[in-house]
Specification:
By secondary structure, this protein is of the alpha+beta class. The chain is built from 3 helices and 8 strands. It has a single domain, classed as Vaccinia Virus protein VP39 (Rossmann fold). Strands 1, 2, 5, 6, 7 and 8 form a 6-stranded mixed β-sheet that branches. The longest helix has 11 residues.
Amino acid sequence: MYSIFGVAWFSDPRKLFALVRQRLNLGGVFVFSQPPGSLGAYGLQGMYKGGFAGPAMYTYRFSYTHAMWRSLLLSAGLRRSRDLLHEAPKPDHIGTSDCPSRVPE
């Protein structure tokens, strides 16, 4: 199961990861990627969507440190297999991180 800037960013991971664990077969893999959290601003955050043109629309996202993501995955019964940090191609730009996890066999 893969999520790139999607469900793992916009769903409560305490609920989502438990559901993912229930649906994956033994040895199944769940991978998600997203940008790093803003320094010191972790947890549930509000954000505007669709830019700043047109009617005001908003949504919520979840942002955590790598250590917190690891803790959330483990508490749902998913074993973290490795962290893949992707540096931005230009200095001072934002990179991404992939968070692959596996259902223990």
